[in-house]
From TrEMBL:
It comes from Nereida ignava. Keywords: ATP-binding, Nucleotide-binding, Transport. The gene is glnQ_3. InterPro entries: AAA+_ATPase, ABC_ATPase_HisP-typ, ABC_transporter-like_ATP-bd, ABC_transporter-like_CS, MetN_ABC_transporter-like, P-loop_NTPase. Pfam families: ABC_tran. Belongs to the ABC transporter superfamily. It comes from the Bacteria. The keyword ATP-binding applies. Residues 5-239 form the ABC transporter domain. One of its GO terms (molecular function) is ATP hydrolysis activity. Gene3D superfamilies: P-loop containing nucleotide triphosphate hydrolases. This is Glutamine transport ATP-binding protein GlnQ.
Length: 245
């Protein structure tokens, strides 16, 4: 197996608070990994370190053969290869959907306007909202905005997609439409790292589950194995609490 992401003994501090403690994790090419755990366990910090939105202080992170540093060329390469979908969509409110999608390909990848628009429409079709291209984000539902955010990441044609609790800001009826799009991406072979509490989605889609608590990885293993026979009592209790919620 080819490790597209390799983390070795990674630690991250916010002043005196240690958010990540000696975290080691591999994500292989085409693998779907779900990270779960209680609030404040370091899940979001971990994936933000993968695309260098947060800089780790100790250990090593290698993404697609590149060791992460603050070197400008390194950052540009990583940001091009690693897409990120946030909890709060992070769309530019003054730009139309189409303008949001073409901005990165034009400025970062150097695509001409026509090629950028063709690519944007391709991915709006992929997330099933091509008819929303000329609207502003505020004219869309939360679920549609998140699908636009996913399409925007896909427009950069990354090798890896990171999702930071992509459904937690959505109403229940909108969650399914976003998870359906993510499930399709998974079936198509996209390498994905997803922070989520959606255990039904995790069980259906993930190849590997990671359980974090207090900045550490407590358990990692094949999805069905950790659901049916978790090694850690803490993980077992966490899963039961969510499933019974």
């Amino acid at each position: 197996m080819v490790a597209l992401i390799s983390m070795r003994k990674v630690s991250k501090f916010f002043d005196t608070f240690q958010a990540l403690k000696d975290v080691s994790l591999d994500v292989n090419l085409g693998e779907k990994v779900v990270i779960c755990g209680p609030s404040g366990s370091g899940k979001s910090t971990l994936i933000r370190c993968i695309n260098r939105l947060e800089a780790h202080e100790q250990g090593e992170i290698i993404v697609d053969g590149v060791t992460l540093t603050d070197d400008k060329a390194t950052l540009e390469k990583i940001r091009g290869n690693v897409g990120m979908v946030f909890q709060q969509f992070n769309l530019f409110p003054h730009l139309t959907v189409l303008e949001n999608l073409t901005l990165g390909p034009r400025r970062v990848l150097g695509l001409d306007p026509k090629a950028a628009e063709e690519r944007a429409m391709k991915y709006l079709n992929r997330v099933r909202i091509p008819d929303q291209a000329d609207k502003l984000p505020r004219q869309l539902s939360g679920g549609q905005q998140q699908r636009v955010a996913i399409a925007r990441s896909l427009c950069m044609e990354p090798r890896i997609l990171l999702f930071d609790e992509p459904t937690s800001a959505l109403d229940p009826e909108m969650i399914a439409e976003v998870l359906d799009v993510m499930s399709e991406l998974a079936r198509d072979g996209m390498t994905m790292v997803v922070v989520t509490h959606e255990m039904g989605f995790a069980r259906r889609v993930a190849d590997k589950m990671v359980f974090m608590d207090k900045g550490q990885i407590v358990e990692v293993g094949p999805t069905e194995q950790v659901f049916t026979a978790p090694k850690s009592a803490r993980f077992g209790a966490f899963i039961q609490q969510i499933l019974n919620h």
